[in-house]
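Morning!

This is the sequence you dropped in the shared folder:
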Amino acid sequence: QVQLVESGGGLVQPGGSLRLSCAASGNMPLKYARGWYRQSPGKQREMVAIFTINGKPVYADSVKGRFTISRDNANNTWDLQMNSLKPEDTAVYYCQWGPRWGQGTQVTVSS
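The structure's back. C-alpha coordinates below.
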Protein backbone atom coordinates (compact mmCIF):
# COMPACT_ATOMS: atom_id res chain seq x y z
CA GLN A 1 0.00 0.00 0.00
CA VAL A 2 1.34 3.40 -0.97
CA GLN A 3 2.10 5.73 1.93
CA LEU A 4 2.67 9.47 1.69
CA VAL A 5 4.76 11.44 4.16
CA GLU A 6 4.86 15.24 4.23
CA SER A 7 7.60 17.40 5.67
CA GLY A 8 8.53 21.06 5.81
CA GLY A 9 5.68 22.74 7.65
CA GLY A 10 6.17 25.27 10.40
CA LEU A 11 5.71 28.83 11.56
CA VAL A 12 6.64 31.70 9.27
CA GLN A 13 6.04 35.43 9.25
CA PRO A 14 3.83 37.05 6.61
CA GLY A 15 5.79 37.51 3.42
CA GLY A 16 8.04 34.57 4.21
CA SER A 17 8.57 31.28 2.42
CA LEU A 18 8.28 27.59 3.17
CA ARG A 19 8.85 24.49 1.12
CA LEU A 20 6.77 21.38 1.66
CA SER A 21 7.85 17.97 0.46
CA CYS A 22 5.92 14.76 -0.05
CA ALA A 23 7.57 11.38 -0.35
CA ALA A 24 5.66 8.36 -1.60
CA SER A 25 6.56 4.77 -0.90
CA GLY A 26 5.57 2.61 -3.82
CA ASN A 27 3.84 3.45 -7.08
CA MET A 28 0.37 4.28 -8.22
CA PRO A 29 -1.29 3.92 -11.63
CA LEU A 30 -0.46 6.73 -14.02
CA LYS A 31 -4.13 7.71 -14.20
CA TYR A 32 -3.95 9.35 -10.81
CA ALA A 33 -3.27 13.04 -10.26
CA ARG A 34 -1.05 14.13 -7.40
CA GLY A 35 -0.66 17.36 -5.53
CA TRP A 36 -1.36 19.42 -2.46
CA TYR A 37 -4.52 20.33 -0.57
CA ARG A 38 -5.10 22.29 2.61
CA GLN A 39 -7.70 22.59 5.32
CA SER A 40 -8.24 25.43 7.76
CA PRO A 41 -10.36 25.13 10.93
CA GLY A 42 -14.03 25.27 10.07
CA LYS A 43 -13.42 25.06 6.34
CA GLN A 44 -13.53 22.30 3.79
CA ARG A 45 -10.37 20.83 2.38
CA GLU A 46 -9.41 22.68 -0.78
CA MET A 47 -7.08 22.08 -3.66
CA VAL A 48 -3.91 24.18 -3.59
CA ALA A 49 -1.87 22.84 -6.49
CA ILE A 50 -1.92 19.59 -8.41
CA PHE A 51 -0.41 17.84 -11.38
CA THR A 52 -3.18 16.51 -13.60
CA ILE A 53 -2.92 13.06 -15.12
CA ASN A 54 -1.46 14.79 -18.17
CA GLY A 55 1.27 16.34 -16.03
CA LYS A 56 -0.10 19.87 -16.21
CA PRO A 57 0.17 21.96 -13.04
CA VAL A 58 -3.03 23.55 -11.85
CA TYR A 59 -3.22 26.12 -9.07
CA ALA A 60 -5.95 27.56 -6.91
CA ASP A 61 -6.55 31.21 -7.77
CA SER A 62 -5.60 32.21 -4.25
CA VAL A 63 -2.03 30.93 -4.64
CA LYS A 64 -1.26 31.64 -8.30
CA GLY A 65 2.00 33.51 -8.68
CA ARG A 66 3.06 32.67 -5.11
CA PHE A 67 3.18 28.87 -4.94
CA THR A 68 4.96 26.48 -7.26
CA ILE A 69 4.49 22.71 -7.42
CA SER A 70 7.33 20.54 -8.65
CA ARG A 71 8.04 16.84 -8.80
CA ASP A 72 10.75 14.24 -9.11
CA ASN A 73 9.19 11.25 -10.79
CA ALA A 74 12.28 9.10 -10.39
CA ASN A 75 12.11 9.43 -6.61
CA ASN A 76 8.32 9.70 -6.27
CA THR A 77 8.50 13.03 -4.51
CA TRP A 78 6.73 16.31 -5.09
CA ASP A 79 7.22 19.68 -3.47
CA LEU A 80 5.29 22.85 -2.89
CA GLN A 81 7.34 26.03 -2.78
CA MET A 82 5.31 28.69 -1.00
CA ASN A 83 6.42 32.31 -1.28
CA SER A 84 4.89 35.58 -0.13
CA LEU A 85 2.90 33.71 2.49
CA LYS A 86 -0.18 35.34 3.99
CA PRO A 87 -2.00 34.67 7.26
CA GLU A 88 -4.86 33.19 5.24
CA ASP A 89 -2.49 30.48 4.02
CA THR A 90 -2.48 29.06 7.55
CA ALA A 91 -3.78 25.50 7.35
CA VAL A 92 -2.89 21.86 7.55
CA TYR A 93 -1.41 20.91 4.21
CA TYR A 94 -1.90 17.43 2.81
CA CYS A 95 -0.20 15.76 -0.08
CA GLN A 96 -2.35 13.53 -2.22
CA TRP A 97 -1.89 10.89 -4.87
CA GLY A 98 -5.08 9.43 -6.23
CA PRO A 99 -6.96 7.97 -3.26
CA ARG A 100 -3.97 8.22 -0.92
CA TRP A 101 -3.39 11.06 1.53
CA GLY A 102 -0.54 12.03 3.78
CA GLN A 103 -1.00 12.74 7.46
CA GLY A 104 -0.77 16.49 6.99
CA THR A 105 1.69 19.15 8.06
CA GLN A 106 0.81 22.38 9.81
CA VAL A 107 1.67 25.70 8.19
CA THR A 108 1.14 28.78 10.32
CA VAL A 109 1.67 32.28 8.94
CA SER A 110 1.74 34.79 11.74
CA SER A 111 3.76 37.70 13.05
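Headline: The mean pLDDT is 94.

More detail when I'm at my desk.
O.
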